[in-house]
Amino acid sequence: MFKNEDTAGADEPSSDANGRKSPKSARTRANIRDTALRSFRENGFDATTMRQVADEAGVSLGNAYYYFPTKNNLVHELYVEVQEGHRASVEQPLAKSTDLVERLGIVYRQGLAQLAPFHEFAPGFLSAMISPRSPLNPLSAESMPARKITIALFREAITGAKNRLPVEFEERMPAALWLSYLLLSLYWSYDRSAGQRRTERLLDQGLRLLRVALPAIRMPFLRAPLRSVLDLVAEAGL
Predict the structure, then answer these.
(1) Is 75 within 8 Å of 45 (Cβ atoms)?
(2) Using CA atoms, how far apart are residues 167 and 156, in angstroms rounded to an integer?
(3) Where residue 103 sits, what CATH number does that domain have?
(4) What is the dihedral angle through the alpha carbons of 191, 197, 198, 201, rounded to the nearest 10 degrees?
(5) Which of the two ends of the chain, N or C, has the fewest CB atoms closer than 10 A to its terminal CB?
(6) Which residues constitute the domain of residue 125?
(7) 32 and 125: one domain?
(8) How far apart are CA 186 and CA 183, in angstroms?
(9) Dihedral sign for Cα atoms in the order 88, 94, 96, 102
């Protein structure tokens, strides 16, 4: 999609007899990756190009393409890094809370905090990922590593709470919560209020409603319809 620059003359990094990359090769890859992620933060999606990344990393354009065949590959590195930061940021707050809704709020809020440096550049990323066929689409197979991290955080928030859900919902809800987090992130990307306060208010209200609604899932006449809804989410491949 973005590979429109000349890749001739790529300097293929050396490997050992088993095909493993040499330490020098690993350092080169890390340098290219780190340069690109810094550019995404400082310049956004549109202004970051493979040629610019190669120049700033001090490698040939062909070498940059050897490690990352398209800019999409670098964006997926960014996805994973952001979600790894998300995972690290919730560790201590979750350890201090046993309330289910509070724990879910921690995952939502820390996730948005990790996205904060990219708010200015959100439209560029959105335009690249909006197509269902785009590998940058959050629901794509290529986006699964980052998606799995966030779903696992919601699962941890649920299973570590003192007010546990019925097992059937503990298994199904993490994916649905991830989907709601995705929608909240989309709203946040368009939110031009100071400090994205509208998004914060929306989240606060949603969590209050969730606290009121959670006891209802134990009612027998509601459990089957709710299971059906959550199963529909699972069919999306989450």
Answers:
(1) yes
(2) 13
(3) 1.10.357.10
(4) 150
(5) N
(6) 72-234
(7) no
(8) 5
(9) positive
- Per-residue model confidence as pLDDT tens digits over 89-106: 999 999 999 999 999 999
Count the residues in the chain: 238
Which residues lie across from 21 on neighbouring strands? 15
Three-state DSSP state, 192: coil
- Write a three-state SS string for 29-64: HHHHHHHHHHHHHHHHHHHCCHHHHHHHHCCCHHHH
Instruction: Please give the tally of structural domains in the chain.
Output: 2
Which tokens sit at 25?
Answer: 């090769």
Distance separating alpha carbons of residues 82 and 218, to the nearest angstrom: 35
**Structure token pair of residue 68:** 């990352």
Residue 121 has pLDDT above 60, yes or no: yes
Instruction: Please indicate, yes or no, whether residues 78 and 40 belong to a single structural domain of this protein.
Output: no
Query: Domain containing 31 — which CATH number?
Result: 1.10.10.60
The alpha carbon torsion through 72, 131, 178, 40 (nearest 10 deg) reads 30
pTM of the model: 0.84
The answer, yes or no, to whether residue 15 has pLDDT greater than 60, is no
Tell me if 1 is assigned to some domain.
no
Does residue 18 belong to any structural domain of this protein? no
Helices and strands: H and E segment counts in the chain: 10, 0
Residue 170 within any structural domain of the chain: yes
Q: Nearest CA to 27 among 13, 7, 9, 8?
A: 13
Q: Round to whole Å and give the CA distance between 60 and 53.
A: 10
Using N-to-C axis directions, what is the helix angle for 167-190 and 220-234, rounded to 10°? Answer: 60
